[in-house]
Amino acid sequence: MRKRFLYLLGILILISFMENCAGSRTKIADMRDAPGKFNEQKVKVSGKVTQTFAIPFLGQSLVKLDDGSGEIWIKPNGWVPFEGQEITVEGTMKVGLTFANKNFGLIVVETEKKTKR
Question: In terms of C-beta density within 10 A (0-12 exposed, 13-18 middle, 19 or more buried), how is residue 74 classed?
């Protein structure tokens, strides 16, 4: 019985470790609190699209994403998510992007293909 318990405990610990290493998500609040730490770093963010600024026929857009801890602009790679859509994006966080005379402050530029949550 004790061996079975230790075996099961070991499997649970391994699964937990693998989930954390497989690309844990970064909280938007953490990026806003320490932008220098995350600038030009790979991040993975998930949340709900709250605002879209798009040119659909060119497949270009900027969207505001809310993960519950804060909001950040996302530059998807060749796709346009809809307002209200739940998405996950992997990309590089950048500080100080200006587009069409609007300063977007912090932004995550997607480097991977689109993934839904």
Answer: buried
